[in-house]
Amino acid sequence: MSPLPIMAEVSKAQLDHFPPCLFPASNPTSTVSDYGASTGRGCVELVLEERWSAIEPSVKNLGVPLPTVLKAAWVLTLRCFVPVDIICFGSSDQLFVSNGPNHGAGLEETRSNSDLMLYILRLDGRETIQDFLQRLKNGQKSRVVAAPPGYDIWIVEEQPSRHHCNTVIYYHECENEHGKLQSKLRNNSAAELTLSQVDLILTVTRKSNGQVFADVEFWPYHTSEDMAVGVLRTFQHIFCQLVRAPYNLRLQDVDVCSDHDRRVIQELTGVVSQAENHCVHDIILKQCRLYPDRIAVCSWDGNLTYGELDDLSSRLAYHLVELGVKPETFVLSCFKKSTWAIVARLAILRAGGAYISVNAGNPPSYLGSIICHTNSQVLVSESEFADRFRDLVPAFIEVTLEWLRGLPAEDKSPVCETIRADNACLVIFTSGSTGQPKGIIQTHQSYATAIRDYVRNLKLDSATRFLQFDDYAFDISNLEFMVPLFIGGCCCVPGPMKTVQDLANNMNSLKANVAFLTPTVAIKLVPADVPCLKILCVGGEPLSRDLLTKWASSTTKLINQYGMGEVAICCAYNDQIHSTSGGNLGRPASGAIWVVDASSPEKLIPIGAVGEFLIEGPHLSRRYLDNTFHHRTEAAFLDKAPQWMAEMHPERCSARLYRSGDLGRLYHNGTFDYIGRKDTILKMDGCRIDAVEVEYQARKALSPEDSIVVDILGIIDGREDPVLTAFLYLHDHPASTAPAIEKEPFLRNVTNDVSVAEKVAYIKASIGQALPDYMIPTIFLLITWMPRTASNKTDRKKIRWVGQKYYLAEQEKRRNWPYYVQRQHLLPV
């Protein structure tokens, strides 16, 4: 690959159009917000290379000076920790030389603010090491900056600041073997100097004795010492590869995980839960036999003891067997909040089947697709939905107490003797990208394992009264139903709710002491209104500081919970939440969580670097449903662990792993931060929304020349409610332009444009005919043109960045968007 061209001089005003390249804070519990408030600085150091002579020939063969190799290593190091493709950092082309015993004295005085310049580079993983080094070497200085097509490196005579970047690299040659550069970060007057505007300073020193030495200075309130050491080790590891690896090695193939980090990761992933080889219903039935008189279900429409739950579910289970239900048979279940939804689920499991909970409000085409893909012959429901479902399946069962008591009671137990722990337990449906819903098959083993560990992690017991709040069609409802019944507790089913006060009243009347809510709902609850609540689990979205502060003063324990439909119950939990750590997921709940390069699971990344979560453990689902999604199963589930597993845990080479698509980072204390999605699966109000699926349905109301992109705006450090937003490009609209005319697309509100408003109404109708209401965008913005990537794909990152910038600008002008519409619903659809 030939070197990319160098930039020409254009308008300096474009500098602010580059996304900032900020090394992330790794002390999330710190409350220091003033960067000049702390005077204590930290420093870690190591020997980069013992003998310069050992690498000098290799550096010369690269055809670039040593400082260029060091800068290249720093660029690749930053790329690990900052998830952007344009890297920005401060550096100096001036060579600092010191001698004499007072190596720091005098050198500080010779260094002025003009020594530093801003380096801005666009990375291409396909580029070779040699081409990248030459491109960096040939970078030309410019007092001005922009981003015309084809230019990919900038060196700007502009002082680094946190507006652009927060790292600096220096190179220093010392004639005294004890010499080392003293940076301005250590100067007591740092607040008055440029270097007080950065958080990390890397200094590389080549001593007269041939030793190449490196140190990192940092503000401890921003960067932990463990992280500083890890950064330095990563830099050393990458530098050694640039010097010693084949020159035609592509940047994306450079190994970035140091031996130091591999040892730490190996220790953190050393324990994975043992699989629970029992069926879900067998564990529940054990509680039924031990405590037959204890209340199992406390509902607005009636209570059931464990003995009654055993009897009624047994009667229904035998009836289901007579209808042909057996292991690997899928049975539909559709109920409003009700005691009988719990009975039906348990009965389906006892009959050997797997239940699929559906929402009666979903479009007929959506429900029909589920029935088609599962070959479901039986649907268990209530009288209200009889007319809707009776003609969709051969057997429609209307469950009532009188009807159940009229069924024969059988003494034989178990109902199904052939069911095993590896048989299907339930199927969760999410939207697909081709107009068809996507089913995830969960086994008894996965759920039994996950619930066992969940109970242990949260220290739950038979006094647990778990609120069954979520819609039955969503996966959290399985947790709310199974967890209390596993331990002899009580499943509390609330009545109809329209307001947050209704929710609080239900909690109090049911005496619910454990609940799972999305942050959107939890922030609206007043802790004093629910004194019965002892544990509040929240998840599905980042936790805002307002939410954390609100519940911190209450007696309720707040737990952040992270998971997805492909993994039973949850992947990680955080029961030590601080007011500044809303994005911290805590530690793994059942298995191990690995962080790998988002483009390749074969590549481990450093601790603290941003990558994709790989989930390992017996709580993984089996696969996606039927051959329609066979390619999705192959892409998402790794049946053979990557090579690094053999190096770290050879006994787990056969382990299955799930590629979550979620981006985050691992910390040295074993906790994880959630950053976002790498694909188009969005999360809002705890619900997963496939943006591609929404766009697929919306395009039915558009012409072939039009385009639409769906994303979520408004999540700014968790402080604003997320808003599902559609960016709409209309080919024949007067505002539409060609990309060459503007540096970036322009956004405008469609509220006052009658022709566009009519189009938006058609789009909403098209989406609503096929998808649930929560998948219909709330906000529509007209975009003048659709940004494209180098491979001519829609540049979603660019669109999101432009959208967030527009959002912030509107917020600055007036507290609320002029077109902002507050979501009226309190509870998930």
Automatic annotation (TrEMBL):
This is AMP-dependent synthetase/ligase domain-containing protein. Pfam families: AMP-binding. CDD domains: A_NRPS_SidN3_like (cd05918). The keyword Metal-binding does not apply. GO terms for molecular function: ligase activity; phosphopantetheine binding. One of its GO terms (biological process) is amino acid activation for nonribosomal peptide biosynthetic process. It comes from the Eukaryota. The lineage of its organism: Eukaryota, Fungi, Dikarya, Ascomycota, Pezizomycotina. GO terms for cellular component: cytoplasm. Residues 286-625 form the AMP-dependent synthetase/ligase domain. Keywords: Ligase, Phosphopantetheine, Phosphoprotein. The keyword Lipid biosynthesis does not apply. SUPFAM superfamilies: Acetyl-CoA synthetase-like, CoA-dependent acyltransferases. Gene3D superfamilies: 3.30.300.30, N-terminal domain of ligase-like, Nonribosomal peptide synthetase, condensation domain.
